[in-house]
Amino acid sequence: MNSYERVKNRLKGNPVDKIPNLNIIMTFAAKYIGVPYKKYVTDFKVLVEGNILCCEKFGIDMVSAISDPCRELFDFGANVVFPENDVPYCKDFLIKEYVDIKKVKVKDPLKSMRMLDRIKAVELFNGRIKGYFPILGWVEGALAELAGLRGINTMMLDFYDNPDFIVELLELCAEQEIKFALEQINA
To answer: Locate the Uroporphyrinogen decarboxylase (URO-D) domain: which residues (predicted)?
Structure first.
């Protein structure tokens, strides 16, 4: 039973030869293949190579296109910092005032930079390991995306002070995540 069959059987409730190992290996994979994390999160070919090598070496049963929580934020226009050997982060928040929501527009993932990089990772995974390893795509949850755009503390205050704004922003974030997820599925 290969990894794909193992995970598929487990999800269907069928017997498996062992419990699937579904560890997410982001920073570990970069270290294992000896590349700076910045390169891992900005070059889909490096991300794919690191995942496949780690899955083969350590018995991990799933490759993943996850790398950091800032792909969508970057493509929205947020100021994302890419440390050499750490996870990217937003230097400041894109939506500081309520009117700033006008800055945030849903993007076509195929015409973006970082979302497209993840889609290309899924495509490359499909070309190399389809049917052997299951492929985990990734989108941020709408609430996590909102926290990245607004800041978690400010967002929590908004739940009380301006719930309509929260709903509007959550709808925008959810629309973006659905588009991004569908493109990964199509890849």
So the answer is: 5-187
Q: Between β-strands 63-64 and 135-136, what pairing exists: parallel, antiparallel or unpaired?
A: parallel
Contact between residue 80 and residue 91 where contact means Cβ atoms under 8 Å apart: yes
Contact status, residue 82 vs residue 37, Cβ threshold 8 Å = no
CB 41 within 8 A of CB 82: yes
CA–CA gap between residue 49 and residue 10 (Å, rounded): 26
- Spans in the chain with pLDDT lower than 50: none
- Reported as a single tens digit per residue, the pLDDT across 19-43 is 999 999 999 999 999 999 999 999 9
Q: Is the pTM of this model over 0.85?
A: yes
User: What are the structural domains, with CATH classification, of the chain?
Assistant: 3-186 (3.20.20.210)
DSSP H or E stretch at residue 136: strand 135-136
